[in-house]
């Protein structure tokens, strides 16, 4: 068995197979012949590749070699390893056979351990396989609070955890603004996959890490190890894919990794800060691939969910947070869960520092700069201006006695927003809306709540206005 024969075999397979399959499965194989030429061993980088090549390609490799070589065929073996490790290390021993695929210009470079490390993400470094996962073990389904804003995403994540790589859920893409629980849910799936199968190789990384690893693999000439590593996982979790924007080579590599994983039935979970089609600088083919599976938006949590999250986090911290205190915080911190957690941390620190019980007074003290900042930003005047602009009416219409639907509904919405976003009392709000009674304001708040639940358009208007006013 000569190197030349193996090269001819590779050339034939390269012609026969789609390039992606050839590059992924055949190209990384290394070969070594026994001294008497009776046995030929193909070395694959890991067990996964061994199984795959045995099932799909080994027979064909044997046939091709048979066609090319007259006389008896060597016995073909396939195992994990490298041909260098198999070579006899004596000075006079023949050099291990090198495939052109691994290094066209010379013998195969079996990477030093340090190089392997630099090519593989942190998750791969050290430890037994089941300990390699770099998931945050605190991000589970049990610690995730569901509400209207994230229920669909949580259900999709559960599905993936129960049936990884099933058609229609691969890739799972979670998208939405910062601090809304995308990373948490993604880890929850990973943790659940490992709970169900402790040997599952689940790798989480930020897209910037993927880019950095790829660059260092290129620099250290370990790009093949890099590819093999990412293609050998059971589930690949990549956070914040918007960071791939504008990085063409990384997108190219990720595109191939992505295809290989999908083709092999491995699960991919991605997060993005917006719907990928809206990310500038992301290749069209990637955008379209991302949409192959299931894309789920995650919205800012509504008041009730914010309260439930605060209660849950307080319970985890073994702190008693009364309902009115939770409401007080949730009404003031609306943008995202990370900020909500930050506010709660400050309150808890204040409790531990002063030894006092949690009540509204203590919260006001602990969060006074946040509350002051918000009070400056959101005034009733401001709300009236934004609402009038949104519904294309005049500010004066909001203050006037007119009761036609086209102004009465926006007025009610503006009152409800004033109640939710400012700390003014009902009489104060009524006063600011043309001297109305506090019962009118109360009625408006109830009516708007009812309409938001029954009419999706009004809910959407309300959410749009909330976003405009609080961002
Ligand atoms: N529904 C929820 N229940 C419990 N905790 C939550 C929930 N949503 C978010 N969190 C918590 O809020 C914090 C921020 O969430 P996470 O990091 O998942 O946000 P993200 O959407 O990935 O944001 P980014 O895009 O900034 O990475 C985390 O500590 C997470 O545990």
UniProtKB/TrEMBL annotation:
It comes from the Bacteria. Residues 168-299 form the AAA+ ATPase domain. Residues 352-471 are annotated as: Domain IV, binds dsDNA. Residues 379-448 form the Chromosomal replication initiator DnaA C-terminal domain. It holds the Pfam family Bac_DnaA. GO terms for molecular function: ATP binding; DNA replication origin binding; lipid binding. GO terms for biological process: DNA replication initiation; regulation of DNA replication. Keywords: ATP-binding, Cytoplasm, DNA replication, DNA-binding, Lipid-binding, Nucleotide-binding. One of its GO terms (cellular component) is plasma membrane. Its main location: cytoplasm. Belongs to the DnaA family. Domain I is involved in oligomerization and binding regulators, domain II is flexibile and of varying length in different bacteria, domain III forms the AAA+ region, while domain IV binds dsDNA. Oligomerizes as a right-handed, spiral filament on DNA at oriC. This is Chromosomal replication initiator protein DnaA. It comes from Alcanivorax nanhaiticus. The gene is dnaA.
């Amino acid at each position: 068995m000569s190197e030349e024969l193996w090269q001819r075999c590779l050339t034939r397979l390269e012609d026969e197979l789609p390039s992606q399959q050839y590059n992924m499965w055949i190209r990384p194989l290394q070969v070594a012949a026994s001294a008497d030429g009776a046995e030929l061993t193909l070395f694959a980088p890991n067990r996964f590749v061994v199984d795959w090549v045995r099932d799909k390609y080994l027979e064909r490799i044997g046939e091709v070699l048979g066609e090319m070589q007259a006389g008896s065929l060597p016995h073909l073996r396939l195992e994990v390893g490298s041909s260098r490790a198999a070579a006899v290390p004596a000075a006079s021993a023949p050099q291990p056979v090198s495939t052109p695929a691994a290094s066209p210009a010379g013998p195969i470079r079996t990477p030093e351990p340090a190089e392997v490390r630099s090519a593989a993400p942190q998750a791969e470094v050290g430890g037994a396989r089941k300990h390699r996962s770099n998931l945050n073990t605190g991000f589970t389904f049990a610690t995730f609070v569901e509400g209207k804003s994230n229920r669909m995403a949580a259900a999709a994540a559960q599905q993936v955890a129960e049936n990884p790589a099933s058609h229609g859920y691969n890739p799972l893409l979670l998208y939405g603004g910062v601090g809304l629980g995308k990373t948490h849910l993604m880890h929850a799936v990973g943790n659940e996959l490992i709970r169900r199968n402790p040997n599952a190789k689940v790798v989480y990384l930020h897209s910037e890490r993927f880019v950095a690893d790829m660059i260092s693999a290129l620099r250290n000439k370990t790009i093949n190890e890099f590819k093999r590593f990412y293609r050998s996982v059971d589930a690949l979790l990549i956070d914040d894919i918007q960071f791939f924007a504008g990085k063409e080579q990384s997108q190219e590599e990720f595109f191939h990794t992505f295809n290989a994983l999908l083709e092999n039935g491995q699960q991919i979970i991605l997060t993005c800060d917006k719907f990928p089609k809206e990310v500038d600088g992301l290749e069209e083919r990637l955008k379209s691939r991302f949409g192959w599976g299931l894309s789920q938006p995650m919205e800012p949590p509504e008041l009730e969910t914010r309260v439930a999250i605060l209660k849950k986090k307080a319970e985890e911290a073994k702190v008693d947070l009364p309902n009115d205190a939770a409401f007080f915080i949730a009404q003031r911190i609306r943008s995202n869960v990370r900020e909500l957690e930050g506010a709660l941390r400050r309150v808890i620190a204040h409790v531990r520092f002063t030894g006092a019980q949690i009540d509204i007074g203590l919260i006001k003290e602990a969060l006074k700069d946040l509350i002051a900042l918000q009070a400056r930003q959101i005034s009733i005047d401001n709300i009236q201006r934004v609402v009038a602009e949104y519904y294309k009416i005049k500010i004066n219409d909001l203050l006037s006695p007119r009761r036609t639907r086209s102004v009465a509904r926006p007025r009610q919405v503006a009152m409800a927003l004033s109640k939710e976003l400012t700390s003014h009392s009902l009489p104060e709000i009524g006063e600011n809306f043309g001297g109305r009674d506090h019962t009118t304001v109360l009625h408006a708040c109830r009516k708007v709540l009812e309409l938001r639940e029954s009419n999706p358009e009004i809910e959407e208007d309300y959410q749009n206005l909330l976003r405009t006013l609080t961002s």
